[in-house]
What does this fold into?
Amino acid sequence: MLGNGKPRLLMIAPAPVIELPGGKLRLDVKFVEGMHFHVAQWDGPVTCILKRGAADIPFGATYDLADLDFTLKIIDRDAPIEVHDLSANDLIFAGADMHDVLHLAALDQRPAGTKLVYAIEYDLDTRMRIASLDRHRSFLRKLRSGIWLLNQERRRRAALRGCDGVQANGYPAFSAYSKFNRKTMLYLDGRMGRAMMATPQEQATRALYQQTDAPLRLVHSGRLEPLKGGQDLIPVAKALHQAKVNFTLDIFGSGSLGADIAKDIAAAGLSDTVRLHDPVDFETVLVPFLRQQADLFVSCHRQSDPSCTYLECLGCGIPVVGYKNAMWQDMAAKSGGGWAVTLGQVNALADKISALSRDPAALLKAGHQGLEFARAHAFEAEFSKRMAHLADIARAR
It folds into this structure.
């Protein structure tokens, strides 16, 4: 420890924050819930640094600064992370996806005895794909972004070599970066605790439903953006309709593609089959729907980022059919909880769903296997594993 007393943890997070009058803040709900767990499982005081600049927080709530169980420091968006901000901490935990914290790995940036651990989610391939798919950027701007990303990647790899430990969220990040630091651990992020997962009775009820001639209940949730593949949802539905598959599709979410999707549903005459819903509360609305009114999750996600949606769907007892990105390809194989088809091939996705509509046994088996996998990686288990990793590094000489 740097001084007497319990170990002090400083977190530098990319979460948004909006300051409101009267000492109140608008914060992302998932961020605050995660911080509560950090405080509960860290044997000492916890401080978090956030940067100003957010215009909106879609899944946010209003909090009183005095009611937070951790110390929150808010700095300007362009403010550098200075050494004097870090000197009173035993361990610094920062996101390596943030380019403005990579300099901290240099030993002259930290007081002697202060440990540094990075968490990372995106590999270089995912970053480059996201930049290339930005519809609002010209070719020249995309080229400049690619060069900038390559330069930042060199800094990122040097930082991962120089820090005391790494936590990699998902298989692609672990595969890409574990070779740079021997104290790299893999974790699978998600919001599903064991108490939220599908019950045996719900699984049995779903199995009985799938033995009938009732429609195959497809579902999709997430931001309706090109980066998330939302443009493929209605073409998949049209292909299923043309193949005379008996199905329904419930889409939960909003985004820049929302209006186009609504128009396409009407234009294709699918209004009785495909239903577009506004975003709903995850725990109280979406999870019960997935557990009780869905048979198969349709993912059109083309990126290899560690989307928590996969694990959360498996925890609800429903398998996933999606594109063969690096994340879902590995999770589908390791969990047995679904199927991965050729990346970006709408017809391949529709063909697989059509085949599954005639194979309830395959749906049932994948649902059970996926649920067991999700239970093994429930939020409690993954989070405790991560906090133990931090504590071990903080104690190490």
User: Anything to note?
Assistant: The mean pLDDT is 92.
